[in-house]
Amino acid sequence: MADAPVAARRVQRLGSIFGRFGLASLSSAIVSVSHLLVQIFSIHHLGTSAIGTLAFLLVIIQFGYSLSNALVATPYTIAVNQHEEHDPAAHAFFYPVNLLLCMAQGLVCGAIAWVMATPMAALVFGVTGMLQLVRWFGRSNAYAHHAPARAARSDIAYAATILVGLLVAMRTGATLPSIGGILLLASLAGLLPFGVAYLRDHFALAPVEALRRYRPVWRDQSAWTLVGVLSTEATSNAHSYGVTLLAGPAAFAPIAVGMLFFRPVNVCITALTQLERPRMTRAVARGDHEAAIRSERVFMGALVMLWLATCVLAAVVLYGFPELILKPTLDRGTVATAVLLCALLSLIQCIQTPMSVMTQARRAFRPLAAQSLRSCGVGIVAVAALTLATAPVFSVAGVVLSQLVMMLGIWRLDRQWREARG
């Protein structure tokens, strides 16, 4: 009988954890499934080169998410959660800065599509790249203010629009620009839950004034976070850039299929980071280090469980229903190798991310950037050597090595901080 209250508390704790992560995980999983359907659809309706081009553009959009997190989302979240009272006017400058970043992202996506595809693809993906980041900061804003339901509604509207667009494309046919058009419409639909006021806030201040007020944030946080993001991007996606530039988009296609399986994990990592960063920041700010560490452990456990489920799904699809993801031009053995290497990479990221978020919550941006730079050097050398000396698919192993170096470095920082706090 004495064990009954203990068991009840454990069940209650598990229910609390699932409730905490359930909404964010479910909405992020829905977005991931929609992206998965887009890429599966492209595999069956586009040429090999177009498949690689689309996958590369999605990597660039994902990189935009990382830039948004570094330059606006993370500083904004920390700013509004440092104190119990929130003054909207004090943080209004983040919105125009975000708009500048969104426009830059659109230009980059448009330029890449122009070089690798057609002018029409450049126009569509340029606008899509910009709108994707506007929506992304809206999600970050919702999580920063502890309103995950608003972000979930955005995700559901986004994914539902993609599904409808793909159903239409199955009847009308598809090209790279038309798939970009589906993503564009989905981005617009995903903005609806944030309302007109959210969009109007982006024009509340002149860009020059916003940048002037942003300067202290840049000096204290964003500059170091940006160094970390750029080096992490160069590390974690070195295979994407290296293979595409050195061997062409067709050679990147098998790797893109391998990455396809673990895209849901990547999206959930980012979404749950947005959910847990405010919680960790508040815990560290009020000196409740036990709560911060507990949040870190639960976060890591949730990601590892998600990774295990994804591995099972990948094995079932790859060996039970290979026709869903493979076409005659893609070698099954090469794709299986890519899936295995991407699984290792994803596991390391699931373990590393909660420790990295904790390090950011205690504002140790400079040591984190130093760890990222160290792993970046390892990654660039390893990926370049493997791409030139072996089959392009083995370039992912270089990224695995570099991310392992990064994870161990962050673990050391995390361990030192815990020991200093007893």
Describe the SSE topology.
Layout: H1 3-45, H2 48-81, H3 94-116, H4 119-144, H5 148-172, H6 176-191, H7 195-201, H8 207-236, H9 238-247, H10 249-285, H11 289-320, H12 332-361, H13 365-389, H14 395-420
Q: Can you offer a commentary on this structure?
A:
The protein has 14 helices and no strands. The protein has about 425 residues and is mostly helical. The model has no long low-confidence stretch (mean pLDDT about 80).
Question: Which key features would you list for this structure?
Answer:
422 residues, mainly alpha, 86% helix, 0% strand, globular
Short description:
This protein has 14 helices and no strands. With 422 residues, the chain is mainly alpha-helical.
Question: Helix content range of the residues, please?
Answer: over 70%
How many strand segments?
Answer: 0
End-to-end C-alpha gap: 36 Å
Task: Summarize the biggest pleated sheet.
Answer: none
Shape assignment: globular
Please state the oligomeric state of the protein chains shown.
Answer: single chain
Write the H/E string, N to C: HHHHHHHHHHHHHH
Low-pLDDT residue spans? none
Work out the helix count.
14
Strand percentage: under 5%
In round numbers, the mean pLDDT is: 80
Structural class: mainly alpha
The radius of gyration is: 21 Å
